[in-house]
Design a protein that fits this description.
The structure is a single chain. By secondary structure, this protein is α/β, with parallel strands linked by helices. The chain has seven helices and eight strands. The strands form two sheets. The chain has a four-stranded parallel β-sheet, with helices on both faces. A four-stranded mixed β-sheet has the order 5-4-6-7, with helices on one face. Helix 1 crosses helix 6. The chain is globular.
Length: 213
């Protein structure tokens, strides 16, 4: 992800990218930190941002309850965006799912299938877990039983997420396929442009979309 973000920044005149931990950097010159690293790297980024009161945008997955305790404390000091997937496609996917679930008058069984490259460490993916939270938080009354999650690690696949709803009437699928990491980099950079105008607190990617990134 770091390489994808740097590649996009080379084509932009309003954003410069550097390693926030580099000794030659002055925190005063850092407008936001974008983190797509690891749970350990997330801790370093969060600490740096809180210490210097710099907004944080993180797409790092595999975070534990302990990490989110840190987020709870940090959101009282800085604007912080935690989003395992920053693609407009996933946002549109969730919007389509919401419209479907609102329209039905019955319950459905839910299956999520997610497929990523063989080097992805966390399973299920952060995006799959985010979709589960979305479904359980907003549409629990429409879900029949536990959500079945199936994870596969194959080749160099950037990300496939398929959500299957099964009812007595049949099966309906919603799917998003990421063709490259560029879609995530684009979303993160759009968030970086606007996060300084946000008040202190924790935000989802949908919050930024509602403000028309």
């Amino acid at each position: 992800m770091g390489q994808a973000i740097q590649a996009q920044c080379k084509t932009l005149s309003d954003i410069q990218v550097n390693d926030f931990l580099a000794k030659e950097n002055n925190p005063i010159d850092v407008s936001a930190v974008i983190d797509f690293s690891s749970p350990e790297g997330f801790v370093n980024a969060l600490r740096f941002c809180v210490t210097n009161k710099i907004p944080l945008i993180s797409g790092t997955t595999g975070l534990s309850a302990k990490h989110f305790e840190g987020v709870t404390a940090a959101k009282k000091i800085i604007p912080i965006l935690i989003a395992p997937n920053m693609s407009l496609g996933i946002a549109n996917l969730k919007s389509s799912i919401e419209k479907y679930l609102i329209s039905i008058n019955t319950t459905v069984k839910v299956k999520i299938i997610e497929i990523h490259h063989t080097h992805k460490k966390d399973s299920p993916s952060g995006t799959a877990l985010d979709i589960i939270r979305f479904l359980e938080s907003h549409h629990a009354n429409k879900i029949n039983g536990l959500i079945d999650v199936q994870s596969y690690r194959i080749g160099n696949i950037f990300g496939i997420h398929r959500i299957e709803f099964q009812s007595e009437d049949g099966i309906i699928n919603f799917q998003h396929i990421a063709s490259s990491r560029d879609v995530f980099a684009t979303g993160a950079l759009k968030a970086a442009r606007s996060i300084n105008s946000m008040e202190i607190g924790e935000y989802s990617f949908a919050d930024f979309l509602n403000k028309k990134l």
